[in-house]
Amino acid sequence: MNLRYYYNPETDQPHIYDHDVSEREVEDVLVKPHEEAKGRDQSRIAIGATREGRLLKVVCVPDEIGDGIFVVTAYDLTGKALTAFRRRMRKRRR
Fold first, then answer.
1. Residue ranges covered by each domain of the chain
2. Residue 69 and residue 30: Cα distance in Å, rounded?
3. pLDDT for the residue numbered 92
4. Torsions phi, psi for 66 (to 5 deg)
5. Which of 47, 2, 49 is nearest to 28 (CA)?
6. Phi and psi for 67 in degrees, rounded to 5?
7. For a tag on the chain, would you pick the N or C end, based on fewer CB atoms within 10 A?
8. Pairing between strand 35-38 and 69-76?
9. What is the pLDDT of residues 37-85, one digit of tens each?
């Protein structure tokens, strides 16, 4: 999977680092997401677990350079979004 990341212009590092997320964790979610949805415009939202069990929300778009994926951001799923996700997962298991 060919991934490129949005770089924070202030730190000159991938924006995901601002949320304490690594590239490997993003790959874990994108390889096997629990849930995928359309976002705004052409963006896609993937929710899934890392190898360590951390639940992340990853926002990405098709990469304009090549045929990969451009990762805009990724962060922990918390609060109401986490509660709603767990509810949807319980309903699917029935």
1. 3-93
2. 10
3. 84
4. 85, -160
5. 49
6. -120, 35
7. C
8. unpaired
9. 999 988 999 999 999 999 999 999 998 887 899 999 999 999 999 999 9
Rounded Cα distance between 55 and 14, Å, is 19
Average pLDDT for 29-38: 95
Cα separation, 13 vs 7, in Å, equals: 5
Q: What is the 3-state secondary structure (H, E, C) of 15-67?
A: HHHHHCCCHHHHHHHHHCCCEEEECCCCCEEEEEECCCCCEEEEEEEECCCCC
Residue 35: the pLDDT is 95
In angstroms, the CA 11 to CA 17 distance is: 10
**Whole-prediction pTM:** 0.91
